TrEMBL record:
<feature type="binding site">
    <location>
        <position position="114"/>
    </location>
    <ligand>
        <name>Zn(2+)</name>
    </ligand>
</feature>
<dbReference type="InterPro" id="IPR016193">
    <property type="entry name" value="Cytidine_deaminase-like"/>
</dbReference>
<dbReference type="GO" id="GO:0072527">
    <property type="term" value="P:pyrimidine-containing compound metabolic process"/>
</dbReference>
<dbReference type="InterPro" id="IPR050202">
    <property type="entry name" value="Cyt/Deoxycyt_deaminase"/>
</dbReference>
<protein>
    <recommendedName>
        <fullName>Cytidine deaminase</fullName>
        <ecNumber>3.5.4.5</ecNumber>
    </recommendedName>
</protein>
<dbReference type="InterPro" id="IPR002125">
    <property type="entry name" value="CMP_dCMP_dom"/>
</dbReference>
<feature type="binding site">
    <location>
        <begin position="61"/>
        <end position="67"/>
    </location>
    <ligand>
        <name>substrate</name>
    </ligand>
</feature>
<keyword id="KW-0862">Zinc</keyword>
<keyword id="KW-0479">Metal-binding</keyword>
<dbReference type="GO" id="GO:0005829">
    <property type="term" value="C:cytosol"/>
</dbReference>
<feature type="active site" description="Proton donor">
    <location>
        <position position="74"/>
    </location>
</feature>
<dbReference type="Pfam" id="PF00383">
    <property type="entry name" value="dCMP_cyt_deam_1"/>
</dbReference>
<dbReference type="GO" id="GO:0004126">
    <property type="term" value="F:cytidine deaminase activity"/>
</dbReference>
<dbReference type="GO" id="GO:0042802">
    <property type="term" value="F:identical protein binding"/>
</dbReference>
<dbReference type="InterPro" id="IPR016192">
    <property type="entry name" value="APOBEC/CMP_deaminase_Zn-bd"/>
</dbReference>
<feature type="domain" description="CMP/dCMP-type deaminase">
    <location>
        <begin position="20"/>
        <end position="156"/>
    </location>
</feature>
<keyword id="KW-0378">Hydrolase</keyword>
Length: 159
């Protein structure tokens, strides 16, 4: 038996340290929390994606009285971008969450299903999808969604 370690590197940025395009999607993700439909959880999540061609799409979580019928902000936004631009890779996604009259102190953690769905974009387009997680204390930046989903399952896993 041997013990192996899987190491994830996360960079903590202050907003001013981010490049302008990344500042733009973080700001949009924060703004989008105001457009969330979350009457059940009161947990408003916003997301914005930066496409490889420079375009930006944004969205928010959409809840439903039948709870599982709702959808997280990340997938709402990513699927919208994919539907509009099926041939353009998503370069980066920014996520923010607002609840109890404030943004979260710690960077928001995307759910497992969203991590898996975002990962599909990496294997679909063959390039990393960067992730920016907003919190009041700073923004976590990861180079690839794979970093948030170690030992992941993709189409390559079936070959
Ligand atoms: N939610 C997101 O939009 N993204 C996540 O990554 C975590 C959870 C939403 C789903 C639901 O509308 C609310 O937050 C509470 O779970």
């Amino acid at each position: 038996m041997e013990t192996q370690s899987i190491v994830t590197q996360v960079q903590l940025y202050q907003f001013e340290e981010l490049a302008p395009d990344y500042q733009k999607i973080v700001t949009l993700a924060k703004e989008q929390t105001g457009k969330s439909y979350s009457p059940y959880s009161h947990f408003a999540v916003g997301a914005a994606v930066l496409m490889e061609n420079g375009e930006i799409f944004a969205g928010s979580n959409q809840e439903n009285a039948a709870y599982p019928s709702g959808l997280c902000a990340e997938r709402t936004t990513m699927f919208y971008a994919n539907a509009q631009r099926p041939d353009v890779p998503i370069k980066a996604i920014a996520i923010a969450a607002y609840t109890n009259d404030d943004y979260l102190e710690d960077p928001v953690a995307p759910c497992g299903a969203c991590r898996q769905a975002l990962l599909e974009n990496e294997s679909r387009f063959g390039q990393p999808l960067q992730v920016l997680l907003y919190g009041k204390k700073g923004i976590y930046f990861v180079e690839s969604i794979k970093d948030l989903l170690p030992l992941c399952f993709t189409k390559e896993s079936m070959q």
